[in-house]
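Figure caption, in words: inputs first, then the predicted bound structure.
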Amino acid sequence: MLLVTDVTAVTVDDRRRIVTDAAIAVDGDRIVEVGKAVDLLERYRAAEVLDGRGMVAIPGLIDAHLHSPQTILRGVADDVPWRPYLEDFIWPIQGGYTPEDALASMRLTLLEMLKSGTTCFVDPLVHTRYGFDGLAQAVVDMGLRGVLAKIVMDQAGLAEQMGVIHPGMVEAEESSLAEAERVLQAWFGGGGGRVQVWYGPRVPREPAVACSPEFYARVSDLAGEAGSGITVHLAGEREDVPFFRREFGMRPVEFARKYGLVGGNVLIAMGTWISEEEVPVLAETGTSVVHCPQPNMKLASGVARVPAMRRAGVNVALGCDSGAQNNALDMIREMKAASLLHVVSTMDAAALTAEDVLEMATIAGARAIGRGADLGSLEAGKQADVVLVDMRKPHTTPVFDPVANLVYAAHGGDVDTVIVAGRLLMRGREVLVADEQEILEEADRRGREVVARAGVSVAPEWPVE
Ligand SMILES: [Zn+2]
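Bound structure (zinc ion present):
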């Protein structure tokens, strides 16, 4: 048994209790009790004690939208809008990836998440060429949790003919589905339940039309039968709404409802241009949305109606999106950005509070991946995914409200200790499960190689002497 003592526990439980001078008792992979340290020390005398003085304990953060292959592309495509971002930089580079490149990027992703308190993530588009098994094994080896969504698509011919998606990013219908089926079988409940496999159909969008409407319906059936989930980008860019109107005569969420892209096992990414009128459909169908504020700002994509979605009862999670688009995978900074974006865009200082965004990064993320009963809060019976954030820093002192300090003052570099499924993965910022230096060197080398191989030139704007 493990006892984390003398922390301020921000539980995010049903009552949203904050317990001062708290202890968290962990037995195996589960939390058995959260309460006052003085009581728990008495009750669990035999437990190994982990001193959490000066720390705030929070549930492991859940990044519900993160393209792991793009972490080694950090800084290759800044200050450009979404089409050249994808067409001139990301797709041509990723289209030449080997499994070793994708693995190096995944390991860098896992390391960055671990060092900033993210314990679980959703990777929305895993291409066959990335080598699914290697990526899933890397998640298991690092001790974290991951939902890996296998890319599926049916319009390879059309996609190639239009010449927008790089040929290396195109997959054929039956082989993409067969690979999804294979990895579902191979990784179902993998890593002691730490790996989940979902379907990741490509975005319904012009000009990169990769899936027919009927294909989405087919994928919806397959995911339902397998007890799996679907994550799909929807209405992320302003141009998407006229596309749906012109091609299908309907709004994006109407399209999603018609072709099976709504429901409790569906996670819509972005939803930036979903209108107020469409929001109730998401709430009624139990469809989750993942909001990525910094990428939305950086690519000038727009402002999703997050406060309105939450008011309507939609489950809205939070994501960092990508190392190329964010450019950091720091969920603490993402929480702050989410709050500030909606405050300024609505001119309402309480539009999205510190508490709101912490919910999005924890319990809402857990619900978005169908794990609300198991993850996302610190309470008895749940998986022991616990993050300790050190508040004894100049920029976090004093602490009147641990939630406000966490969201508005702290950053990922303040994360001191990470426990996942009861296993200590980082202590005093020392990573106990991987060779940090080796991961950084490999990622740096592979990042440079994939960019050079694609013939993309990346250099600072300013003259370098
Ligand atoms: Zn995305």
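The chain has two domains: 2-59+384-431, 61-368.
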